[in-house]
Amino acid sequence: MAKPRHLIFLFFLFLLLLLCATLQSSSASSSDHLYDVGDVVPFFVNKVGPFNNPSETYEFYDLPFCTPDPIVRKKESLGEVLNGDRLSNAKYEFKFREEKIDETLCPKKLTIDQVAILRQAISRDFYFQFYLDDLPFWGFIGKLEEDGWTPGGGGPNYYLFTHVQFDILYNGNQIIQVNAFGDPNRAVDITSDVGVDVKFTYSVIWNATKVRFENRMDRYSRASLMPVHQQIHWFSFVNSIAIILLLIGLLALLYMRHLGSDLKKYSNANEEDKEVGWKSLHGDVFRPPSNSALLFAVVGTGTQLLILLCVLLFLALIGTLYPYNRGGLLNWLVLLYALSSVFAGYTAASFYGQFAENGWEKTVSLAGILYTGPVFVAASILNIVAISYRATTGFPFGSIVVVLVLFTFLAIPLLAFGGVIGYRFRSKFQIPSGTKRHSRDTQLLAWYRRTPFLMFLGGLVPFSAIVLQLHQVYASMWGYKIYTLPSILFATFIPVIVIIALVSIGLTYIQLSVEDHEWWWRSVLCGGSTAIFMFGYCIYFYVRSNMSGFLQLSFFIGYNACLCYAFFLIFGAISFRVSFLFVRHIYDDVKRE
């Protein structure tokens, strides 16, 4: 590999670019949210959608509500657009600490078609999302009541909420909390297929609270801090630690009783006995595998994604990323992926340069498209689906251009720069033993020693350590259980890496002990197979959920496939690196003996 000082240089370059991005995108301070009595508080309507389908969202004014003239859309960040946010102005008016009772928003004559649209939305539990002083809050547009009193049943009744009450809490001259409630006593029956005259009204109630402004986002964390949820979090962590201790014990037994004794026998044996078992592979075990350019591209991309994930977890730990930081996660995700491309190029080129003098450009190019390519194809397909449904999750043309420009003028140059640094300053790989000119043939292995079964074992053990935590993450992504414990998530991720490393060592030794020297690709597949179990669990999660419809199914499968593919590359890269170090270590010991 390349010399450590060059890796340190790239890391500090990455931190410098990250610091510049942080200063440019720093969130508003508390001084930006100070109001005097009577000051107008910024308010925006965002989107509506069915409660059970988080990816199926539409613009608020797609439903026949009171519209301002003209409708002015808020200028949004790239992350907000990618998240499906479409903020617009509204007729609602909020002045700091000025109450309003039964304020008329607008009278409206609903046509038969508009009534049908609202009826369908109510039947699917449509909710709305508003923002007041950058605080998100939600409410339902109506309610559905089953007619259980009439003999034989008369079908459901649909009621539209025409009055919304806003309860706002403040501390001094700052807003702390907002809630919205549809008044069921003023709901209008829209069950019949007739036009309806309605009058939309609202009330604004202000109340004081002692909650500090710095803690106003804590209310979104309460769902994750319930005792039952915390018990699940810590049980998952303890489960991971127990698996690690078990694996350490098994590997210690393996090393002392088998590997250690093998080394002693090797030092005291004659030449014939030395050519038995894993010791006989010293002339083939360091032979680069077929498609080595692709292999090192996998390692490079996996390293990039691992660094990206660690930085995101760090930002969550220090509070830069928090629940409902509008578009914040996607902003950082796109920016960090572009910046971390330098590590993909560096790692791929430095590994490839240890085994070949020419052709490093190919592996760097593969590292650039290995993850970006499939994600681009999946996003394009999902974008076509979203646009056909007129959903807000469809990307506007301007946002697509911004992403393409960012990757063309930032990610690709950094990828190439990392590749040049990694190749030019690579270190010479010192092979513990000479490589034979012709590769030896591998014998036919039993079914339980072949790649599919080893992948099953390599994926099942780490997956069993994260399955409880994985359920919480999926519930946060595709439901309304807000995940706000990055410390527990980070504390679980570290043991999973350790488990994958320990399992990788064990499986690599098992493979070498039966004189199978083709460990390179198998180490990647066995480590990455945990992501296959993750994807299988996401299918199980979808079946057990209340999500429905082709749009939601497409986004669920597409986004989870991209996520699990990323973890396949991350875990595969970790497994390969650990196996590589293990193989070098044991054959270095053989060389010393």
The proportion of residues forming helix, as a percent range, comes to 40-55%
Can you count the beta strands? 11
How many structurally independent domains?
3
How many helices? The count is 15
Strands side by side in the biggest sheet: 2-1-4-5
Radius of gyration: 29 Å
Order of helices and strands: HEEHEHEEEEEEEEHHHHHHHHHHHH
Would you write up a description of this structure?
Belongs to the nonaspanin (TM9SF) (TC 9.A.2) family. Its main location: membrane. It is a multi-pass membrane protein. The chain has 15 helices and 11 strands. The protein has helices at residues 4-24, 78-82, 112-123, 227-268, 271-274, 292-317, 328-339, 341-353, 360-369, 372-389, 397-424, 451-478, 486-513, 520-544, 550-592; strands spanning 43-50, 58-59, 100-110, 126-132, 135-140, 142-146, 156-161, 163-171, 174-182, 187-189, 196-208. Strands 2-1-4-5 form a 4-stranded antiparallel beta sheet. The two termini are 25 Å apart. Helix 4 packs antiparallel against helix 12 (451-478). The relative contact order is 0.12. The protein is elongated, with a radius of gyration of 29 Å. Helix content is 53%, strand content 13%. It has 593 residues and is an alpha+beta fold. It has 3 domains: 39-215, no CATH class; 223-261 and 448-546 and 563-592, no CATH class; 290-429, no CATH class. Mean pLDDT is 83; it is low at 23-31 and 223-230.
